[in-house]
Design a protein that fits this description.
By secondary structure, the protein is of the alpha+beta class. The protein has one domain. The chain has four helices and two strands.
Length: 94
């Protein structure tokens, strides 16, 4: 269970962990929903924190909510799925 004080969460946030990384993390494709303020507010600082430690950091918005991100994942023709496949081909080589 999370601690009741949000200040205690900060050291474990992806943004904080990325900023403290001692070695380069894997490439990141960060998908977010620009229409959702919390999604945009969280993804942009995370991308900025990861970018200096990462050879490839892509931040891209999709007009989806959380449920549709998950529901549509792996559907042919889905823009996010297509971007994930291309990102993996480009950075993993498969």
């Amino acid at each position: 269970m999370l601690a009741p004080d949000p200040e205690q969460w900060k050291p474990y946030s992806p943004t904080e962990l990325a900023a403290r990384a001692s070695q380069a993390p894997a490439p990141f494709l960060i998908a977010y929903a620009p229409e959702e303020p919390r999604s945009a507010d969280d993804s942009q600082p995370f991308a900025a924190a990861v970018a200096p430690h990462c050879g490839a950091c892509v931040l891209k918005g999709y007009s989806k909510d959380h449920a549709s991100f998950l529901r549509d994942l792996a559907n042919r023709g889905d823009p996010l799925t297509s971007d994930i496949v291309e990102f993996l081909k480009q950075h993993v080589g498969r």
